[in-house]
Amino acid sequence: HVQLVESGGGSVQPGGSLTLSCAASGVTTGTVCMAWFRQAVGKFREGIAHLESDGDEAYADSVKGRFTISQDDYNERVWLQMNNLKPDDTAMYYCAAGFVYGDTWFREDDYNHWGQGTQVTVS
Q1: What pLDDT, in 10s, does the model give residues 63-97?
Q2: Exposed (0-12), middle (13-18) or buried (19+): which is 42, by Cβ within 10 Å?
C-alpha cells in the first residue's frame, strides 16, 4: 500500500522561502517518478515540478529558477525547496508518484498515488 504524506506548508511573506516534504511509504522514491502539483482556490490543479527515476528534473515556467525538487532515497522523502515566494504561489500543494516520463509529466491523470496536500499561503 503506497502512502504519501506532505508536510512543511505554512504562511510566509513575499520573497520568503519554504521547504515542503513528502514522506513515501510502500514505494521507493528512486524507482518511480515523483512530482509536485498545486491547486489554488478556483483554479485547476497544475504540475509544477517533476523528478524522473533517473534524476532528470522538469519545472513549470511559473516556478522555474525559484523551486527545486529533490529526493532522499534513504529516507524515502521528496523535497520541494521554494524560494522567492510570491502571492501567486498561494495554493494547496500535493505530492504525487507514478511512472510518468517525458514532456507530459504535468498531466495529473497519469499519476497513481497522491498525498493529502499541505497549504502554502504567501501574503
Answers
A1: 999 999 999 877 689 999 999 999 999 999 999 99
A2: exposed
Closest alpha carbon to 95 in 41, 42, 43, 27: 27
Beta carbons of 21 and 6 less than 8 angstroms apart: yes
Instruction: State pLDDT tens for residues 42-62.
Output: 999 999 999 998 889 999 999
β-sheet bridge partners, residue 5: 23
Q: How many CB atoms lie within 10 A of CB 56?
A: 12
- C-alpha count within 13 angstroms, C-beta hemisphere, residue 106: 14
